[in-house]
Amino acid sequence: MKKRDGLPEIGDLPMMNAPQLQAAHRELFGAEHAIANCQHLRRKIAWHLQAGKDGGLPESVRQYAIAIARGTELRMRISENASRRQSGVPLDQTVTTTVVQTRDARLPMPGSLIVKKYKAQTVVVRVLNDGFEYDSRRFASLSAIAGEITGTRWNGFAFFGLEKEARHAR
Predict the structure, then answer these.
(1) Which end of the chain is more exposed for a tag (fewer CB within 10 A), N or C?
(2) Looking at the structure, do residues 117 and 162 belong to the same domain, yes or no?
(3) Which residues partner with 2 through β-bridges?
(4) What are phi and psi of 136, to 5 degrees?
(5) Pairing verdict, β 121-128 and 113-118
C-alpha cells in the first residue's frame, strides 16, 4: 500500500490511524506534528503529496505567499532549506528564523482599500506601507482621517470598524 520511497498513497490516507499518520508526517516534514487530529493530518499529507506530484506551487504563488507572510509572526525556513531537506540534509543543519510582526494586526495589507459609508458620503482610504491616503492626501493615522471627515476626535480603528473585525478574526 506504500510507494517505493516509503510514503503512503493519497488513497491510503483514510485508512491510516493516528500513529501511522504521525509517522507519515515525520517522514514528509522531518518533525512530529503538534496536533494529532487525524483529519487535519490527512489533509496536510495529501496536499503535500499532491503538490509534490504536480511539481509544487508555481513560483509566482510562492512569492505571493512570502509577500503576505512578511510582517507576520511565524517560524519560517529559508527557501534553500527546502532543497537541503529534500537532498537529505538533517533538520539541525538548516536555518530557522522568527519574523516579528511590525504592523498592527488590525490593519489590512498595504495596497488594500478601507471603505466606509459616513452620512451620504462613501469614504475610501488606501492603506500604504507608511500610512494612509485619503482624498489624494497622505495621513499618518486613521484617527487623523476620521477627524478630518467628522470634525471631531475619533479612534480611527473604531470609526472604520476595524476593531470589530479584529475581534471576530480571533
Answers:
(1) C
(2) yes
(3) 8
(4) 65, 20
(5) antiparallel
How many structural domains compose the chain? 3
Residues 43 and 74 in one domain: no
Identify the H or E element spanning 118.
strand 113-118
Question: DSSP string of 120-158?
Answer: TEEEEEEEETTEEEETTEEES-HHHHHHHHHSS---HHH
Range of the domain at 125: 113-169
The DSSP code sequence of 80-93 is HHHHHHHTT--GGG
CB 31 within 8 A of CB 91: yes
88 and 125, same domain (yes or no): no
- Clarify whether residues 78 and 117 are in a common domain: no
Q: Please state, in angstroms and rounded to a whole number, the distance separating the CA atoms of residues 86 and 84.
A: 5
Angle 97-72-126 (CA atoms, 0-180°, nearest 5)?
Answer: 145
pTM for this entry: 0.41
Q: For 71-115, how does the pLDDT look when each residue is reduced to its tens digit (9 = 90+)?
A: 655 554 445 555 555 566 566 665 666 666 677 888 888 889 999
Q: What is the pLDDT of residue 73?
A: 52
Q: Quick: pLDDT tens for 7-24.
A: 788 888 899 998 899 888
Q: In whole angstroms, what is the distance from residue 52 CA to residue 46 CA?
A: 10
